[in-house]
Amino acid sequence: MDKTDKLEKETVSKKNGFVLHGTLKSFLSDKVYLSNIIENNIQPVDSAKIENSNFVFQGVVKYPERFALTFENSSATIILIIENTNFEIMIDPDQLDEPVIKGSELNNKLDEYKSISKNIFKKIDYLFPRFQKARLENDLKNLAEIGNELKKIETEFTDFSFNFVKTNNDSYVAAMILSDQLKSSTVDTLRISNAYKFLSEKVKKSPDAQLIATTLNLR
Predict the structure, then answer these.
(1) Which of 23, 52, 104, 203 could make a disulfide contact with 199, Cβ separation 3.0–4.6 Å?
(2) Distance of alpha carbon 24 from alpha carbon 216, whole angstroms
(3) Mean pLDDT over each residue of the chain, to the nearest integer
């Protein structure tokens, strides 16, 4: 990219695009990649040098989408939403699952969803010692009871996800969460279709919503 192209990119970004400022708490790599997530694959779209533990990405996205940050010579991957705003991400290499993102409404909304989801799945941790003991003792009755409790937790999470989509139907995050339901071990196409209908027209134009429409033939 020559200097003219770079200046044009910066001008567009400042006006109506995104600027992502990244900070690393400690060394992780010398280079970072911004990749678009396309179904189960990631496709690099930009890269940046990490200097003094800082990096910057800027550009324009047509619709907010989930992207991945990956690092040279590292298996670390961080998922975040890129939306057209000026925001920042603070990364602790020792806590890659919990980056701190500021200035992005959509990432805040996704964090809200993730936080409640984690609390639901914590219930599985409490069942694990019981499960281990029952398996060692070949206690079929107790294993069956634990299996039923696991199904209840899964149902609680699924119900929470669909309710979150319903109450946030004007947020692009709703389409992201709903598209993830297509990857569920037990895909409820009818429930997904009904939830899709309540997404706002704005959100229905997003790539995640379009994926749902195409997969379930809702066009």
Answers:
(1) 203
(2) 41
(3) 91
Torsion of CA 54, 58, 64, 65, to 10 degrees: -60
Judge contact between 30 and 20, C-beta under 8 A. no
CB under 8 Å to 195, separation ≥6 — which residues?
Answer: 162, 165, 166, 178
Mode of pairing for the β-strands spanning 65-71 and 31-38: antiparallel
Half-sphere exposure of 208 (CA within 13 A, CB side): 27
Task: Give CA angle at 153 (155, 207), nearest 5°.
Answer: 55
Q: Give pLDDT tens digits for 165-182.
A: 999 999 999 999 999 999
What gap in Å lies between CA 114 and CA 126, rounded to an integer? 19
52 burial via Cβ count (<10 Å: 0-12, 13-18, 19+):
exposed
Cβ neighbours of residue 85 closer than 8 Å, sequence gap 6 or more: 18, 103, 104, 105
What's the rounded Cα separation, in Å, for the pair 152 and 182? 20
**Is 3-102 assigned to CATH 3.30.390.50?**
no
CA 219/CA 214 separation, integer angstroms: 7
* Domain range summary for the chain, segments of one domain joined by +: 3-102, 107-215
Please tell me the pTM assigned to this model. 0.86
Long-range contacts of 123-126 (CB under 8 A, 24+ apart): 123/153, 124/150, 124/153
Q: How many Cα atoms sit within 13 Å of 153 on the Cβ side? A: 18
